[in-house]
Amino acid sequence: MLQHEEQSEPQPITITPEWERKLNSQKDAEIYEVVEEIGATGQNAVEPLLALLQIEAKKAKQQRTMINWIFGGAGLFLLSMFLLKGLKGGDWDFPNLWFLFYFGGSGAAYAYTNKQKNVTRALARFDDVRTVGAFVEALEFPDKDIVAMAEQKLTELLPRLQASDALLLNKEQREILNRQLVKSDGLIVKAILSAYEQVGDSAAIPAVSKLARGEGKGGKMPLNVSAAIACLQFLEIRAKQQEQAQTLLRASESTATAPETLLRPAHATAETQPETLLRPSQS
Predict the structure, then answer these.
(1) For the chain, what is the domain count?
(2) Whole-number Å distance between alpha carbons of 161 and 164
(3) Same domain, 27 and 114
(4) What integer pLDDT is reported at residue 86 of this predicted model?
(5) What is the pLDDT of residues 2-21, one digit of tens each?
(6) Same structural domain for residues 47 and 37?
């Protein structure tokens, strides 16, 4: 496995058309060639691969949105036709409508690009905590092999996260991890809880609380429950600290002195007559 090498000033690198072609390939050899060729330039391949994966994730999201709109519009059209048919005394055709939404939802769920899967598989060659977000997203890929690979990588990487790594996980990725806590019973549950002790936030409290109460698949394992109870203490302390910080911030904003209350020089003063001023006595 390739090890991550720290670089003080990593140089930007562009994915060439040839690398793009290989990353779209179904052959593992060509996909891994990209990693080796990028490495031969003196660069760690993690950054450019993550950048490419981000672009592909955006395309896939747009594709899923389009599929949802198409099938949603078609579903509304058919529903209106069935309603009209029902008003005219015809029979409702629920099975056809159900199949439409079923296949529409399935199409949206499987709208992941081939390049997304290939880049994720290429990233698995690196032992780099910066890849955690990519593997979290891969947990919901409709590919059992990719999911198994992502779980294995996250089991290794998540416990290594430090508090300074909180930005490696965005809101959507944290939501995926929270869902995993409830529906999974594998080693990844313990890895997520270990990471949350360092980078968890208040949004994780509901899922961790369920696990601490023994709910969900993971809650059937005593080790997961005890780990969730310990993690919950960290999350609650961090949530209180964040709340106190927000309270202090709001207080400092509300006590700002209004401009009209500040001392200002007088606009006009009475002129002092010379004869009223003190003078030295004359001998």
Answers:
(1) 2
(2) 8
(3) yes
(4) 60
(5) 554 444 444 556 778 888 78
(6) yes
